[in-house]
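Sat 14:20. Reprocessing the chain from the morning session after the first attempt stalled halfway. Input below, unchanged.
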Amino acid sequence: MKFRRQRFQRGTLRKVTRADNQWAWEYRYQNPLTGKRKSMFISTEKFPTQVAVERHLEAFVLKLNSENPALAILEPTFDAVLDRFIEDERLLEIKQLRPGDRNAAEGDLSYATVTSYLSVIKQVRVKWGTTRLTRIKPVQVQEWLKKMYAAPRPKATSTARVPTWV
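Finished this time. Tokens:
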């Protein structure tokens, strides 16, 4: 039995000019299924810096290396993990459908669940999105949750609690 080391693929990123003389980011990688080199182009208007593109591509790199998750990304950001979750659970696809118009496939989440997940993800992304997973500590999360619950709640406008004798 011959030892074969596990490979991790990062791909290459460079800035290139397109046919219309506009700049774009070219991300080149090897397709793990076919073994052929592929490339994807990303707008410089949406992602002006190399750091912004690399953060955007983290979820894609995680997926490319999904056969060996131990090597996937040593320190992924929480954004990358959230993007991977949204893609794997098809949250955006389910959200596009109206509540009664979807055919419930085995294991699909309901529209209400998807809506609440996306709402929570939006709040979590603001606080923890750019933080590396190894830097998030349980104490920090507990303190953040306490601050969220300590926020003032809107007062009820219902008259259900008004005593009848008033």
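The chain has a mean pLDDT of 77.
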